[in-house]
Amino acid sequence: MENKPRILFIDRDGTLVVEPPVDYQLDSLEKLEFVPGVFKAMNFIASTLDFRLVMVTNQDGLGTSSFPEDTFWPAHNKMLRAFEGEGVTFDDIIIDRTFEHEHKPTRKPGTALLGEYLNGDYDLGGSFVIGDRLTDIMLAKNLGAKGILLCDREKGEKMVTEAGLTDVCALITDSWATITEFLRAGSREATVVRTTSETDIRVRLNLDGWGKCNISTGLGFFDHMLEQIGRHSGFDLDIAVKGDLYVDEHHTIEDTALALGQALKQALGDKRGIERYGFVLPMDDCNCTVALDFGGRPWLVWEAAFKRERIGEMPTEMFLHFFKSLSDAAAMNLYIHAEGNNEHHKIEGIFKALARALKAAAQRNVLRYTLPSTKGAL
Q1: What CA–CA distance (Å, rounded) separates 1 from 275?
Q2: Residue 151, SS3 per DSSP
Q3: What is the pLDDT, as a whole number, of residue 2?
Q4: CA distances (Å), 92 to each of 36, 95, 121, 222, 269, in order?
Q5: CB 318 within 8 Å of CB 250
Q6: Using one digit for the tens of pLDDT, what is the confidence trace for 249-259?
């Protein structure tokens, strides 16, 4: 059975070209300005990926006295020529000319002008709408596609959440480079649930996040250390743990490491395009080195001694156990060396160095989307 074509429905103003800030009309060549990074991204998409490119744009009152056609076409056609010069040709261009107050079904998020794409000949479930407004995400919902919102992430998350469109919006970013990476290689997220008679753990991880953390293990110092991983790696990390702390801390710490390691392994997927290796960090009086390799084989070298029995609620003997369990579950080589006098600084430096090593090793380059190994497998 032949695969149905996938489509990128792409907004114009605010997505491909900068929307004029005063009257929102691109009605002169002087106003023509392209969104940063759009040429490189669109060239890569057009030359490498298998999407058909369809521009979908609302142009309020085009052809009326408020927006004469002879002021629209020169800038629009120059824009198209610029993209053609970069190897990008749109398969279709759909322009709605109505005003917003008319509430016409032809206007985004309406689909009346998109009937050709609703006849069952296209893979809409594998298609995306890319735009800078909530109406673009609403259009994605109406098409049965997914949406990509090009805007400030914090602002976009608020809009999408309030509109109840979180299941439709696959990505929120202000970068065309991130859009390219997502379309080429997908998201790198994982959710791991680990339930035993001793612990109940849920870990959610997004390797391409913004360092947003929500950590609750019942151990304050452990929460603080785990938050270092998310904050300093840039990973979004949610960890919720209910453990048998009435016994001691052992099971909570060990099982959290196993669940987090499993989430790392799952989120990395086939590891194509990643840097694979990472490392180092000073913290006040301490020098902490963490080197790692996502090579598929667990190994831990631990060179860190602690004079105190506990830091916060955490027994210092559990630090080695945490990193050993993390290394095993993530299938990574992990080398840790720390020197210093302040025990708090020493372990916090190790966790921060781990975070930076993870960030470096998990970094992905879709322009070099190969497996970083001569063996052909990791």
Answers
A1: 37
A2: coil
A3: 66
A4: 23, 10, 15, 54, 35
A5: yes
A6: 999 999 999 99
